[in-house]
Amino acid sequence: MSEINLSLLKPHPLNSEIYGDAADADLVESIESNGILTPILITGDKAEIGPNVIISGHRRYYAAKKLDAPTVPVIISDLTDAMDIEEALIVANKQRAKDNYQTAREAEKMASIERERAKQRISIAVSASNAARPSMVNLPHLENTGTSRDAVGNKIGVSGSTAERMIRTVTVYDDLLANGEVERAEEIRSALNKSVNAGYNAAKVHIETERNNQDQAANKSTFNATNDNIEWAKWSWNPVTGCKHGCPYCYARDIAMRYTGHFNPEFHADRLKAPVNTKIPEGRKNEPGIKNVFVCSMADLFGAWVPADWINAVLKEIEAAPQWNFILLTKNPKRYLEFEYPVNCWVGATADTQARANAAIDVFQQLSWGKNRRPSVLFLSCEPLSERIDLAPDAVMGSLDWLIIGGRSRSSKLPEAQPEWEWVENLFNLARKKNIKLYFKPNLTVQPKEYPTL
Questions:
Q1: CB proximity list for 165: less than 8 A, separation 6 or greater
Q2: At residue 53, what are phi and psi to the nearest 5 degrees?
Q3: Residue 354 belongs to what H/E stretch?
Q4: Is 273:307 a contact under the CB 8 Å cutoff?
Q5: C or N terminus of the chain, fewer CB within 10 Å?
Q6: Is the pTM of this model over 0.85?
């Protein structure tokens, strides 16, 4: 072990690619109090990628950098091969807390290393064979040179079959990103982080959808398959994207900013024919929610800034596609009063607060009994349920068919959070009394925790 000037150390790019490490607050506090107790492992002078590249200890490095530490303790590895160093970096992170996406990236990299090593073995075998018998070259069988999924899985701490499923899932994820299908890619990543099987199944749904639509022209848009977080609708459709509400808990903005750099409202005329182009995969026609389409999951179609022409264009395509059931949701329900709705529409409003719930019920009453035809279903989505909401029983009779309740998912501005159980119970009791259908979102995990009075 020795000390080295912190400025000489170089993070390995693979670490950022897989883990995205930064200075952890608890680790910074620990190092400030106790120093770095475990030395940082780095490459030596003979390494193919050069000296002083961090193999293990990136978080310690970033913490020390935040503390402006002049030197840090290091151990110099004797590894020289670039692939050996990459493998050592991944193995060093075997016990750390990771999400499934990060583990999948580990598996993908390990598989890539194994394939490259197999190629090298083939090259050596061919060279040896050519040297001995130039006219008789025997290449190894494919099964003897291919990637061993069990070997890959063992190195990252999962089974071989799990590693294989992870790799296939992130392969589909990358393909979607390359084709600009950001939302669908993020849905697969979200499903993967929920469970490996969920991610793999979401990727399979995408593959099946593509296979069922392969006879269509490449420039014809289709619906996106949703993940388990939107299990009441198996598809999403975004002929309009972008929003100006500025909600701090908005996941859609985070996705858009990550891949497009903006969340400005846009109209996508090329997506209008998705209802015609999309076919239900064989074997899934009786699946619950398979005909339900969530409209504008990456926008608010009825935002005050959305031109009426955009909305009418979408409603026209909805009416022309009676084989589908379209679910509309807005934070600006008063805009609903400007339009007529086809019978294959469910019309809903976000009601995260009492004020929004009151505004939505007022509009629903007018939609029910005013000049507009009553939509097939009227619903409130109390996600995230941010405060107690009281709905007058007389007001909801005839103007509310469905009630969705959910927690707050994590965003770039807010952590995830659960509502008070009493808030949930209050709405639950109302729904049962008035025969309103109730749906708890998967992210709602709050439970009553009551104790008897002593």
A1: 196, 197, 199, 200
A2: -90, 130
A3: helix 354-369
A4: no
A5: C
A6: no
